[in-house]
Design goal:
Layout: E1 5-8, E2 12-16, E3 19-23, E4 31-37, E5 42-47, E6 53-59, E7 61-68, E8 71-78, E9 82-85, E10 90-95, E11 99-105, E12 119-120
Antiparallel strand pairs: 1-9, 2-3, 4-11, 5-10, 5-12, 6-9, 6-11, 7-8, 7-10
């Protein structure tokens, strides 16, 4: 069982001949970003002190590395996977394929004074 992240499932999925609707969450998030990355790109090496961050993989594949207090966890995520990263967990992404990820933050990364809840290590 993971100490650093929580593996989740979308709240709701609906499929018919027209296509697909995926509801990620009902409430609780104030900022939503869509991130695209090319295969071979590395992003991350940062953490958030205030925010819980939820990720949903729209397409692609990447290796995720989470670290905190000497614990390290590695996962490979692909389209349809969803997971939550807790505050103070250093997280990084090694994109194996062109990918699109939705990132949701419960409080929002930008503060009113212009500072950010994002800390590089």
């Amino acid at each position: 069982m993971s100490k650093l992240i929580e593996i989740l499932k979308p709240d709701f999925n609906f499929n018919d001949e027209r296509g697909n609707l995926t509801q990620l969450v009902h409430e609780g998030y104030k900022q939503v970003n869509v991130v695209t990355s090319k295969g071979g790109v590395f992003r991350g090496g940062h953490f958030h002190k205030e925010n819980v961050e939820l990720f949903y993989v729209v397409y692609g594949k990447f290796e995720f590395i989470g670290e905190k207090d000497g614990d390290k966890e590695e996962y490979t995520f692909k389209a349809g996977d969803m997971f939550m990263v807790k505050p103070y967990v250093i997280h990084s992404f090694n994109y194996l394929e062109d990918s699109c990820v939705v990132a949701l933050y419960d409080k929002g990364v930008e503060h009113a004074d212009g500072s950010m809840d994002s800390y590089k290590v």
